[in-house]
């Protein structure tokens, strides 16, 4: 996209930033790009295949990226909410990066695909999008495409699970979590999982067994989802990263819905809005308390 | 040996623990299945405590603290309430029966209420049976 | 190696007989959670299997090195700690229809498993298993088995190989174990078996050879010379360090050993899959980490596979299956990385000789 490439060229050649983190064409489809040379900015693209959430690369733990210097990052509205989250939780400061937001018409679930956006191929999170024109940015580029088709797969699955008995739900999750091999790709791909030492890696005390056994996999997944409660931006990178195709996006959405229904909070591009589990109201619901 | 449920209770020191103590000194009859873990405040309860208790063989869990507005640290239980609400929702979604986990507010003078919480939770868990979430990988030895 | 013929019916009977004799038969099947994926799973009859459809999403290594396995149990008793080893003899099993890349990976890993210590658990399973691979016609643009000295027709690690043909399969009998398995089910020499195999092999190889030229013998040495090349500082920027690549790889074999107690008296010691890509893999107790950034960790992966393992064991620790590149959430691509360093193979090393 020309305006994006020109902007990147300007930012790099003027020395405003040292690296532009965006999307490029890789051998197997769209992938993240780290452009440090103005001459390479023609590689930057943006289209419906730009699924990845690049905010994950802003994690200050990634020393080999922070070593490159001040970054400009290309974000969709959903990604911008993750940037806001990192600012809110003081992992980065607003002025430490340049945010290039792109107007978005939805993305494919699979960035290596070349299909058109349909109800089957569109990422399930896009149908509910309210930030196709992002609000958190230093620069806003691109034309606003038409709204994406709605992929009902995830809401249908959640509804189906909600109708199951507890025993069937247990079986459903066991069936998936038995395949978990504790690679923690879900954690590494998540922009909001930035802990220097993950609870799962602490050996003294050992909170969660590191072994990929059924009981430990369940504990790990529950723990990670709880740690994301009210912080998750529902980018579904966890599900996409999982080499075992465990439907982690269901949990992300379910908890996000629970937070929204109870506390009226949705992931937001405004870092000034506090995270919902860090605040309270005296009249919060307590129907679950006996 | 007949199975008897193992129930772990995470209780706050100032209200529920004192209330439980009162239940004890009042000689109120309670089922003996509850193991009490005393914490400074209900907001000290990390969801991981609950997850790990179930992972390690608990059949039921009780979490109890001061009534809202009465927290010894003023606001602890308000934060805890939000956290527990989400934990409750997540656990249900992943297959934990509602009757295995009890959240309650029990004050220092509510010995009777503690007795009720203990006995009712034990009865509910007994009715459900032992908690066997095991999938097929790496059964506990 | 001799060629025989087996009909579909006879192969079906072979599977049924094995199952009846309590031998576990594992084959590629449509995944239970996603019909578009293939998994290696136990079957009860041949019809359950989906042979030659797609590369299974996991390699076959988990049948020899499980994702997690108990290696000993302990019990604290009044007299002291009682330790129980687990038996290393495994139950007999047959793996039917794995891809040659997955099977060759096992033979390649045998080398390190018998290096300074003979891994009894690995070899117990290896000895108890008969492997009947399937000639692979499933190669896509990401495969490069021929480049690493293997191929869709490679019989390395196989006891027998099936080549689809009219009415059934040509069976390439490779080892005595393979011969014993098929003895009563194959028919005598049938016309032109050799020619049928040659044709199938040529077609299968053609599919994949175009993807990458053969890796030259001096590549290992040139990678070592280029250990400090500046390319390593840019190659791994998009890598998340998740280790998904290692989990699906037929030759990655690193593991972690942990103790888990069930209560204060009993527990187990487990061996679990691990990956050099994770941040803490080389973290020392002192706090020092010699591979402190993803750049060093990714370099390690490539150097280990294409330089260190070859120098030590004469084998590339890669079978060109392409799974790592397909599964990577960050878009890393091993073939691309190898390609970049091949360009340097003839050029002078940068960053100082090593």
Characterise this structure.
The complex is a heterotrimer of chains A (290), B (141) and C (354). Chain A is of the alpha/beta class and 290 residues long. Chain A folds into 2 domains: 2-141, no CATH class; 153-266, no CATH class. Chain A has helices at residues 2-13, 63-66, 77-88, 153-163, 166-177, 185-189, 214-228, 237-241, 248-263; strands spanning 19-26, 29-35, 71-75, 97-102, 139-141. Chain A has a 5-stranded mixed β-sheet. The mean pLDDT of chain A is 95. Chain B has helices spanning 13-25, 47-55, 76-93, 111-128, and strands spanning 7-12, 34-39, 60-65, 101-105. The two termini of chain B are 19 Å apart. Chain B is globular, with a radius of gyration of 15 Å. The model of chain B has no long low-confidence stretch (mean pLDDT 93). In chain C, 32% of the residues lie in helices and 20% in strands. Chain C starts with a strand and ends in a 10-residue tail after the last helix. Chains in contact: A-B, A-C, B-C. At the A-B interface, helix 5, helix 7 and helix 9 of A face helix 2, helix 3 and strand 4 of B.
Key phrases:
heterotrimer, A: 290 residues, alpha/beta, 2 domains, five-stranded mixed sheet, 9 helices, 5 strands, 32% helix, globular, C: 354 residues, seven-stranded mixed sheet, four-stranded antiparallel sheet, 11 strands
Helical stretch count of chain A? 9
Tell me the strand percentage band of chain A: 5-15%
The H/E string of chain C reads EHEEEEEHHEEEHHHHHEEHHH
Summed up, the domain count of chain C is: 2
Average residue pLDDT of chain C: 92
Question: In short, what is this structure?
Answer:
The complex is a heterotrimer of chains A (290), B (141) and C (354). Chain A is an alpha/beta fold and 290 residues long. Chain A has 2 domains: 140 residues, no CATH class; 114 residues, no CATH class.
Task: List strands and helices in order, with pairings.
The complex is a heterotrimer of chains A (290), B (141) and C (354).
Chain A (H helix, E strand, L loop, with lengths): L1 H12 L5 E8 L2 E7 L27 H4 L4 E5 L1 H12 L8 E6 L36 E3 L11 H11 L2 H12 L7 H5 L24 H15 L8 H5 L6 H16 L27
Parallel strand pairs in A: 1-3, 3-4, 4-5
Antiparallel strand pairs in A: 1-2
Helix pairs in contact in A: 4-9
Chain B lengths: L6 E6 H13 L8 E6 L7 H9 L4 E6 L10 H18 L7 E5 L5 H18 L13
Parallel strand pairs in B: 1-2, 1-3, 3-4
Chain C lengths: L1 E6 H13 L3 E7 L7 E6 L24 E10 L2 E6 L7 E4 L3 H14 L6 H9 E6 L25 E6 L2 E6 L2 H7 L10 H17 L9 H7 L6 H4 L8 H5 L6 E7 L4 E8 L20 H20 L9 H5 L6 H11 L10
Parallel strand pairs in C: 2-6, 6-7, 7-8
Antiparallel strand pairs in C: 1-9, 2-3, 4-5, 4-11, 8-9, 10-11
